[in-house]
Specification:
The chain is of the alpha/beta class and about 325 residues long. The chain has 2 domains: about 180 residues, Rossmann fold (3-Layer(aba) Sandwich); about 110 residues, Phosphofructokinase domain (Rossmann fold, 3-Layer(aba) Sandwich). It contains 11 helices and 11 strands. The strands form 2 sheets. Strands 3-2-1-4-5-10-11 form a 7-stranded mixed β-sheet, sandwiched between helices. Helix 4 links the parallel strand 4 and strand 5. The protein starts with 8 loop residues before the first strand and ends with a helix. Bound molecules: 6-O-phosphono-beta-D-fructofuranose.
Length: about 325
């Protein structure tokens, strides 16, 4: 497509781990498209639904009363089949047969990789919108859902701090992030945690024990240590056991898990989701066919899709030093 090709119909899907605020993006895409005379198809269950030709035309009321709802009304899936070229060919054919001129993909880095391949190999116009609680895509400082997940985790940690302080206890509180430490770092800073264990960092038990004992000497009875789940959800239980064995320090563990993925989106996720959805349609109407809608320098911007091809928690990692400095 070039700047002169009028865009007449688009499809939208949500892919990978769902995140609060995806509904705000869907609502914004649908309403902006319809307002500009563009048909919108909602694809169910991400790339899996696309391969099954499972989609319906949406109208303004299909997205009524969803701005405040977590999850995604289109549902989501992880679809390893989309890594195979012959399936991407099939997807391109399905879109062409339906006369759909562009695909809007909301998801994380894996979803972006699929979108980039579909665009580069098959020439399907694609717009990507970063949506994952992990805030870990290159090229953007922000992904939809991160703020809500962090807020959910902060509320939980504050509650645990009350009981930890009342009984002089050390708590390991595990937050999501298989390969990302974004939630852990932000939650650690915002809750005044005594320590943050990153997803890709070897656990230094001597350092943890020293910090806890130093705190006790200064009259601190309790400690909160935020753990990024890393490649083993529930690893905090192992960490607590090893700390007991090596240093005779007892602790409690709380794994927050999928509670962080749900819930009503915060104002940030609603606002940015609404801006991003609108810009996705505008970007297509301007004739751009391989873009991502990102946040940079505190502004929503349309940039080349290829900027967002990697997993990277660069935006929050920049604050690693501050987390360490404040956690003495
Ligand atoms: O969406 C990202 C994420 O929430 C990661 O933080 C987490 O490791 C993973 O998804 C869990 O995925 P699933 O729900 O498929 O187990």
């Amino acid at each position: 497509m070039n700047a002169k090709t009028k865009i007449t119909s688009v499809a939208i899907l949500t892919s990978g781990g769902d995140s609060p605020g995806m509904n705000c993006v869907i609502r914004s895409v649908v309403r902006t498209a319809i307002g500009n005379g563009i048909k919108v198809y909602g694809i169910n269950k991400g790339y899996e639904g696309l391969l099954n030709n499972d989609m319906i035309e949406m109208n303004a009321s299909s997205v009524g009363n969803i701005i405040q709802r977590g999850g995604t009304i289109l549902q989501s899936s992880r679809c390893p089949e989309f890594r195979e070229k012959h399936n991407r060919e099939k997807a391109a054919q399905i879109l062409e047969d339906r006369g759909i001129k562009a695909l809007i993909v909301i998801g994380g880095d894996g979803s972006f990789k699929g979108a980039i391949a579909l665009n580069q190999e098959m020439g399907v116009p694609v717009i990507g919108i970063p949506g994952t609680i992990d805030n870990d895509i290159s090229g953007t400082q922000y992904t939809i859902g991160f703020d809500t997940a962090v807020q959910t985790a902060i509320e939980a940690v504050d509650k645990i701090r009350d009981t930890a302080a009342s009984s002089n206890r050390t708590f390991f509180i595990e937050v999501m992030g298989a390969k990302s430490s974004s939630i852990a770092l932000k939650v650690g800073i915002c809750t005044g945690a005594e320590n943050v264990l990153l997803s890709d960092q070897k656990v230094d038990y001597h350092k943890i024990a020293d910090a806890i004992r130093r705190g006790i000497r200064r009259g601190k009875g309790s400690s909160i240590i935020i753990v990024a789940e890393g490649d083993k959800p529930g690893r905090s239980y192992d960490i607590a056991h090893i700390l007991k064995d090596l240093h005779d320090i007892s602790s409690k563990v709380c794994v927050l898990g999928h509670i962080q993925r749900g819930g009503s989106p915060t104002s940030n996720d609603r606002f940015l989701g609404s801006m991003m959805g609108q810009m996705a349609i505008e970007t297509l109407m301007e004739g751009n066919t391989q873009n991502a809608i990102v946040v940079r320098d505190d502004r929503v911007q349309s940039v080349p899709l290829s900027d967002c091809s990697e997993k990277s928690d660069h935006a929050m990692k920049a604050f690693k030093g501050i987390a360490e400095e404040l956690s003495i």
